[in-house]
Amino acid sequence: MTLVQSKFAKWNKQFIAGEWTEGTSDKTIKNINPYNGELLVEMKASSQDDLDRAYETAYKAGKEWAKVPLGVRAQVIYKALAQMDERKEEIIELLIAEAGSTRIKAEREWTAARRIMEESASFPYRMKGDIMGSDIPGKENRVVREAKGVVGMIGPWNFPLHLCMRTVAPALALGNGVVIKPASDTPITAGLLIADIFDQAGLPKGVLSVVSGSGSEIGDAFVAHPIPKIISFTGSTEVGKGIGKLAGEHLKEVALELGGDNAMIVLDDADIDRAVEAAVFGKFFHQGQICMALNRIIVDDSIYDTFTDKFVAKVKTLQFGDPSDPKTIVGPLIHEKEAERLLDVVEQAQKAGAKLLYGGKANGSVLEPTVLSEVAADNPAAQKELFGPVALLIRAKGEEDALRIMNSSEYGLSGSVFTTNLERGYQVAQQMETGMIHVNDQSVNDEAHVMFGGEKASGVGRFGGEWAIEKFTRTRWISIQHQYRDFF
Hints:
Elements lengths: L2 H6 L5 E3 L2 E3 L6 E5 L6 E6 L3 H18 L4 H17 L1 H12 L3 H18 L9 E3 L6 E9 L2 E5 L5 H14 L3 E5 L6 H13 L7 E3 L4 H10 L5 E5 L2 H13 L3 E5 L4 E5 L5 H13 L9 E7 L3 H12 L20 H16 L3 E4 L3 E2 L2 E2 L2 E4 L16 E7 L2 H9 L3 E2 L1 E5 L3 H9 L5 E4 L15 E2 L2 E2 L4 H7 L1 E9 L7
Parallel strand pairs: 7-8, 7-10, 8-9, 10-11, 12-13, 12-20, 13-18, 17-18, 20-21
Antiparallel strand pairs: 1-2, 3-4, 5-6, 6-24, 11-23, 14-17, 15-16, 19-22
Protein name: Salicylaldehyde dehydrogenase
Organism: Paenibacillus bovis
Family: Belongs to the aldehyde dehydrogenase family.
């Protein structure tokens, strides 16, 4: 066993029904560092039997968990927060090694996940019912809000801790049982680490389980299983459509946060230097492997050349390579094949008329930050989610044209607009067909107390704050007839 493997050896088991145990599948999961290709840990995958046991115990233990005093649930979340604080450096190192996160990104992800937990600790006290009158004499109508039951969470690999915690912490705080199926590329930070944190925080055994396995073996069963009431998924639109279809066949609710072809509109009166700084961050943070990352930067024709020169100059200052180096801004993609895919996108974009201004080369899984200018709105590269460090600069002939280009995408997750006239920015934002729009900021924003979600092909449902409470609870009508009524 190498030094690297020995460091990660504790993460070679599944967490099922409150126990650290080996999966019972014949298949194995190899956890590989995306930057250097080193094997971090290998584990036996979960089987259908493991999945059944996880769901069954989450159902039974979850029913008891929903009955405990509100303060007990809140205290578990607070103790989990303490675990996050005590283990901050461990968590950051795991995110760097397993997800290819730069240190800058890993620290921000830790902060975001922590903030979600902090917000969720208040949720037990924010579940509200209602008492309503009636048209029937002597009847009292009570609308009660309760835990939904069991939540199935399918986790992503790009922001594994943050985006899984966005479902897990609210769901637990509100009294649900939870089963996580983490991305196979990040089984630790998208599942096992979360389970360990809550286990150490005193969460009752069985309320939370993690089953890491191949989609071919347990993927469909995870969604179609009769126990979970809701399936939460963050990932690609293609996979999300399949999950939504399967969940619909079994009459299950979904929370789907899917892909994005996000755009920033830079209007003719924008502060160009500020817009450039925001655009570079929104495009290249975590190598562009973010559902909210900027794909298209749509710039008014009158300032396009100036913006482009300053944008390229800024991009040339970005350090890329080893994610463990604190100065690195652009780290590795999750797989070398992703770099190859994006190089093909860059080549095809140039054939369609785009000009390569910078980058366009890869070393293993590290793709240089790349800038393409003179990208037509209908260029194939501008019609898809890139999920990598490739910036597309598009000319717009005025505000109306910019909006037309912006809204031509099938996606609608996040977006932004830059202008020195804030009221104009608000009016433009109202016309942008996305779930989230940011004036004088870039598209990568997520606050635990504010709604998060997209439109069109970017997903269904909302996360965050009151919207999370709505998503992970149900309401029921219980009426009380205080005096017997006549029916005939």
